[in-house]
Amino acid sequence: MGCERIYFHAHPEQELREVEWLHYGRYLHERMKGKPTQYITSTQEFYGRDFRVTPDVLIPRPETELLVETVLNVRPDAHTIIDVGTGSGAIAITLALEARRQILATDISPAALNVAARNADSLHAPVQFVNADLLASFADASADVIISNPPYIAETDRESLQPDVRDWEPGLALFAGPAGLAIYERLIPEARRVLKPGGLLALEIGYGQSEAVSAIAKGWHDLHIIPDLAGIPRVLLCRKP
């Protein structure tokens, strides 16, 4: 119908036209096959804004808002912020708009970067996108903050995932080796190279991974874990010595 949700509360008596029933039937059929609603509507809300999502990008989760809030609170003065594995661009765009500064964002997937760039354009966010594998394109000691919600699901957990996640969301954005730690094992050393002394690394972590990821970040300063609203360890923060 192309209406805001409040329209339905204001016009409860309205009947759907035939063409609207046809669209609804098609969308319902897709949902019954397991396709996530966000991919059907091409929209997901994050931090109060609507983002375009396609099967080329991970659907942004509410828990990831904690990662953004943490960086905004801990380093509001940061000049150079890099979002690694940006996907839909939700993290980078939100930081750019909330902190009112340009953000750098990388992704290895050109298709994902196309989605992110479209979101940045529609939301008028100053984000510069770079097609790169993690931080390969960045110079030593060039960033104040590196933030990432990387793939962290173990390949061994693939079959236990909900089908609408396992069968529809991009595996590149979900899985990270046998234990789910493969990206952390590469990203944390790379971040140490790219961050300025005292620079902040902020990572979303998966359930039960806080000890393993903390061990990978051994030797960093001020390392601590922040739980989400459910009490689950969700964000790892540490500073480059």
Number of strands: 9
Which range does the strand content fall in? 15-25%
State the separation between the terminal residues, measured CA to CA.
55 Å
Q: What's the CATH topology label? A: Rossmann fold
Strand order of the largest sheet: 5-4-3-6-7-9-8
* CATH architecture classification: 3-Layer(aba) Sandwich
Total individual domains = 1
What structural category arises from helix and sheet content?
A: alpha/beta
Series of H and E elements: HHHEEHEHEHEEHHEHEE
CATH class: Alpha Beta
Give the radius of gyration.
19 Å
Q: How much helix, percentage-wise, in residues?
A: 25-40%
Question: Helical stretch count?
Answer: 9
Give the integer mean of the pLDDT values. Answer: 96
Describe this structure in words.
This protein has helices at residues 5-10, 18-32, 37-41, 65-74, 90-99, 110-123, 163-166, 182-194, 210-216; strands spanning 43-46, 49-52, 81-84, 103-107, 127-131, 143-148, 195-204, 221-227, 233-239. It is α/β, with parallel strands linked by helices. The protein has one domain (55-239): Rossmann fold (3-Layer(aba) Sandwich). β3, α5 and β4 (103-107) form a beta-alpha-beta unit. The longest helix is centred in the N-terminal third of the chain and has 15 residues, at 18-32. The mean pLDDT is 96.
